[in-house]
Amino acid sequence: MTEMKMEATSEVLSEVRGQVGFITLNRPRALNALSLGMVRDLMGILLAWKDDARVLAVAIRGSNKEGPFGAFCAGGDIRFLHQAGSQGNPLLEDFFTEEYALNHLIHNYGKPYIAFMDGIVMGGGMGISQGAALRVVTERTKMAMPETAIGLFPDVGGGYFLSRCPGRVGEWLALTGDTIGAGDAVEFGLADGILPVDQQVPVWEALGSGHFADGAAIKNYVAFKLIAGSATLSSARGTIDHYFALPTVREIVAQLEAAGSDWARTTAATLRKRSPLMLHVVLEQVRRARSMGLADDLRMERDMVRHCFFLRAGQSETVEGIRALAVDKDHAPKWSPGCIEDVTPEMVAPFFVSPWPAYAHPLAALV
């Protein structure tokens, strides 16, 4: 029996074929950036399939202008975030609350959820894939949490999954927003294996036509198709750990700038372009999250979002960062403070104070 929801205008396409529920993100012109409507569609679909005996597993992919695959999800809809953040639109609050609840559901989903992470996988795209039972990348995967470039922080559970990367890789990825490929994603624990691009369609189609004993058999079928890849940054791990284990952002940047290698100079130059305030906030976030469970991390990140957009009295680093990158595109954000050395602990501390009593927190129900 097949159930289909494939309206041409829908930004989230879903269908049940055989024993698998299939989801295709269908906003290719925006690289499948998540809108509030898409978050709500995804939540509704996953909740409906959660107790549907016909569905043994879920598979999710993105699409590009040529068709399925090619791009997974570039993150959240930052133009909406800028407009809503500039106007104090309460839908902004709903977006983050519901997105984080969706992230939590995926991490705790009772059936195998298999993410085909082809092409761009950034920000919110990581949020709907890192909790998967199987995280599949390809040779054209470009993965990053680039939020510090827009004066935000790696949210959607970023504190949780980045802090669990080996060594200090999490701090490096969170602070710089650098992009990694498939081999490094596997090496750093952010993917489970590589599926060649030309195998995606055959594997996807086989999932809908095969007969499987249970959800684990579906997951294992895909896992058996994965191949090994080479990590290009393996030799850099010691260097990454050395610098990004330092106690403060100021010390990290100072030592990078004093080093002689091209990598160190390039990394320092990248950090100098990011929001100085949010670099300090992000370092604290990742280090706090290392000892947190997912639900507590998501509640912390929800607190941080409230501070980023609503509690800085017209000085939102995030609204300014998005303006410079995606709205006016002048690539000249006016950060406040303007320099890493001018950030004080008193500026960072409020981000980690919840605006809500525990019982009234928007994500109080997460466990």
Automatic annotation (TrEMBL):
SUPFAM superfamilies cross-referenced by the UniProt entry: ClpP/crotonase
Q: Which Gene3D superfamilies match?
A: 2-enoyl-CoA Hydratase, Chain A, domain 1
Query: Which superkingdom?
Result: Bacteria
> Which keywords are on file for this protein?
Hydrolase
Q: Quick check: keyword Hydrolase in the entry? A: yes
Q: Does the keyword Phosphoprotein apply?
A: no
Q: Cross-referenced Pfam families, in alphabetical order?
A: ECH_2
Q: Where is the Enoyl-CoA hydratase/isomerase domain?
A: 20-352
Q: PANTHER family of this UniProt entry? A: 3-HYDROXYISOBUTYRYL-COA HYDROLASE, 3-HYDROXYISOBUTYRYL-COA HYDROLASE-RELATED
Know the name of this protein?
3-hydroxyisobutyryl-CoA hydrolase
Give the source lineage, highest ranks first.
Bacteria, Pseudomonadati, Pseudomonadota, Betaproteobacteria, Burkholderiales
